[in-house]
Structures are given as structure tokens and as C-alpha cells.
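All the exercises in this workshop are built on plain-text protein records. The record below serves as our worked example for the rest of this section.
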Amino acid sequence: MLGDEGGSLGSAEASSNFNEFSFSNGGPLTQDNEVGGPLRGTAGVRLGGPPGGPPGGPPGASSQSQTLPPPSQDLWFRPIEAKALAEDFLHIDHEIVPCRALVELRGLSYLSPTAREEYAKNLRPDVVTPGDTLQLLLFQARSLLQQQKVQLLFPAAFGPTVVDALQKDPLGVDLASHSLFYFELGEELCRLLPEHEWPHPNLQAILQQAKRQRRVGLAVGAFSRDRKILKRLTFEERDTVNAIENSRPFMGPFA
């Protein structure tokens, strides 16, 4: 069994304010990480409506409590954001993913560890320059990717350490410490990026196989009622366990 993966990040905390996350009021920040940095936040299944959270659906979840920076004064990104908000809503849209800037991005220095530090020391204006690494919510990253302003990167949770462990012992990997919606996010990133940019050969097939093997493990009772083991499961896997044992839906971090 694989315990804590190298670079694991701890489970995300629930929040009811999806509206707090946007370019215009400052998105959540993560600690200074290199390209392919860690992934935080929670996400979920497709629901209708904007990232404000659909009526009757589970509210969103944010990454661990952090201080939000003041809003940027630049307006160039608002049409891009508005287009993203008009599209069908995915809870994984609020997972944080690393990106690399391809062009100058005015007013977004707070989203790049390097740019934020240099701006605070008056070493550069409030601008992200090409090559800087940003930490963006997925729906923001997807919009800028479509505009060819950033290069989307896989979080470290999809690197060789975790993926190799999934191949060797899929039931033993603590996926919840990386993301409650690990498989959904991984499949979405594989869809958005060409295969030569994946961090592991055949990543999509590996994720699908590991997901099936973990489901089989749940069905045959490979996971006990031990709370420590249950905490390793993804949102969908916990839902499955609850349905099998209690015949009632599991609400996960949104309860």
C-alpha cells in the first residue's frame, strides 16, 4: 500500500463561494511552485449554470484558506472571462492548474509567484511576462489557452511518481490528498492537451484502467470501513462506498 505520496497536498476544504473566484477580483494563490506544481482545490461533475454555483447542486470548494490579493484594474481579460462563465459549468473548473505565460499579461502579477515578488519590490510593473509560471483556476486557464496566451501544464500529481504508483498498486494510492476529483481532472487535461505534452506516455489509458481497478476493489470489498482508508478515496469512490453500505447518497465535502 502506498501511503503519503511525495509532494501530496492535503485535502481541500469546502466553501460555498464560487463567486469569489475570478480574474476580476483575484483568484486563489498557491505557494511558490515550479512548472508542473501541485494541484489544489476540489471539483466535480458537470452541472448547468455559471461558476457561481448551480441551484440545488453542491456548492463549490476552494483550495486551502489563503489571502486574496486586491483586484486588478486592467479590463482586457474580462471579455475572456465572460465567455468562460457563459459555458456549461464543471466543478473541476475550480481546480488550480499551473500554466506558462506565452505573452505579456497585464494586471495579473498576483497570479505568478515570480511576478508577484518582483512587483512587490518595484522591480517590474504589474505584468506577467512570457515564461512566467501562473497558478490559475481551470476555467481561467482554458480561456487563456484558447486565446493562445498561456501554455497549460499538468500538475505534479500527474507526474511519474503518482502515475507509476497507480500502475503498480492502484488501490494503495492516496488520491484524495491530490484531488477529490483526480480522474475527472486528469481526463479533462488529456482532452485539452496533445499527447506529446502529457507527462506520462498513455496517461489517459492509465487513468482509465486505474479507475476501473479501484471500482472493482470497492465492489469486492477491498476497502474496509477504516476511516483512514476511506479518506484516500476520491469523491466518486466515497459515494460508491456509501451507496453500497448505506444505500444513501454521499455528499462528500459539500455536506
Remarks:
- The chain has two domains: 13-152, 156-254.
